[in-house]
Design goal:
Chains A, B: It is an enzyme of class 2 (transferase). Chains A, B: This is glutathione transferase. Chains A, B: Its EC number is 2.5.1.18. Chains A, B: It is found in: Cytoplasm, Cytosol. The structure is a homodimer of 217-residue chains. The first copy, chain A, is 53% helix and 8% strand. By secondary structure, chain A is α+β, with helices and mostly antiparallel strands. Chain A folds into two domains: 76 residues, 3-Layer(aba) Sandwich (Glutaredoxin), CATH 3.40.30.10; 119 residues, Glutathione S-transferase Yfyf (Class Pi), Chain A, domain 2 (Up-down Bundle). Chain A has a four-stranded mixed beta sheet, covered by helices on one side. In chain A, a hairpin with a 2-residue loop joins strand 3 and strand 4. In chain A, helix 4 runs parallel beside helix 7.
């Protein structure tokens, strides 16, 4: 039975799962959800995710939401297919992957997402980007990236010398961020830049990036 | 070798780990971190967690931070001790635990924490609580709790008919929230109230709650 992913190929959280599916060499059917007509707030979708957010994964009778939880499930279920993303056989490495997944979730995304939102989404809604919000978050993001720079001077990837979900989860927002005028925050940090160049040219991501046209002219 | 937990018994993220350690029947040494003198921003602490946040767990040579990642590690390492908190032998149940852990992390905490912060912390810093922030988040929290009410009408706990990390992670913030004037948001929802009464009287939590004196007169 083919995996069904409900979402949008421009959405950061949907693409987070799509990249993982490609890394694990899994076929899937992408079922578009029309956010503009609020299809995600209708009963049929709310029955799959009561919070009304994309993505949702259906694997037979199992229905999952929250992109990072979906990816942990995929990484565990298909641990012997494609690239190993969570090191399930090594308790300490697996724990370190989880630590840096939480860093992405609680330190990185909360600072990078308002910048991407203000730069790309606010204008679509007829609002001027709030430069104060952008500036405050650029400062916070710089501090987070200083920690990444030190970390990545010792290991090739965030959780160690192996690519994992901890790295993968950074791809969608960073991809959009690199199209803003502030990409130097990444490019000016030697080890962060090398890490970004490495993870953003993996074939599993390149397949997905083609559809991430949000913000393009 | 005894587990070392660096943190504070009033901190929500430190107590999240302490509760887990008690559930897993693990002895540990709590090493206080003096946040008031910014001990957490000094080199000795930053070497353990470069983001300067509590808690940090040391298990022999392994150093971990981010409370939810620490708890996943403890739940996996000590899966045969104390209460099973992540259902590691059942892939679908384990995935559902992760989904509701992410819900706590991305839907629940971001709405409940500003309320607790404004009510208890702002006055300590000489600021009046911002009632607009409180009201906005009470409205959002009510919507999240509506989903919980529906969910908990079908299963006894968030991930199923078993207590898990998904429930446990709610304890610290909800405990403080129940001391605010808005506890009716929990008490007026029948199934949420029954769930709260159940999870908040577990012995592992009662041991920790004694030290959660923040906001007491």
């Amino acid at each position: 039975m083919v995996l069904k992913l409900h979402g949008l190929p421009m959405s950061t959280s949907t693409t987070r799962v799509m990249i993982c599916l490609h890394e694990k060499a899994q076929d899937f059917e992408l079922i578009p959800v029309d956010l503009f007509s609020q299809e995600n707030k209708q009963p049929a979708f709310l029955a799959k995710n009561p919070f009304g957010k994309v993505p949702v994964l259906e694997d037979g009778e199992l229905t999952l939401f929250e992109s990072r939880a979906i990816n942990e499930y995929l990484a565990q279920k298909f641990k012997d297919s494609g690239h190993d993303l969570i090191r399930p056989e090594n308790l300490n490495e697996c724990a370190t992957v989880k630590v840096w997944m939480e860093v992405e979730s609680h330190q990185y995304e909360p600072t990078i997402s308002p910048i991407v939102y203000q730069h790309f989404v606010a204008p679509l809604q007829g609002k001027a980007p709030d430069q104060t919000v952008i500036d405050q978050n650029l400062e916070k993001l710089g501090k987070v990236l200083d920690v990444y720079e030190a970390r990545l001077s010792g290991t090739k990837y965030l959780a160690g010398d192996f690519y994992s979900l901890a790295d993968l989860h950074h791809l969608p927002y960073t991809f959009y961020f690199m199209k803003t005028p502030w990409a130097s925050l990444i490019n000016d940090r030697t080890h962060v830049k090398a890490w970004w160049d490495d993870i953003s040219c993996r074939p599993a991501f390149e397949k997905v990036a083609q559809g991430m046209t949000f913000g393009d002219k």
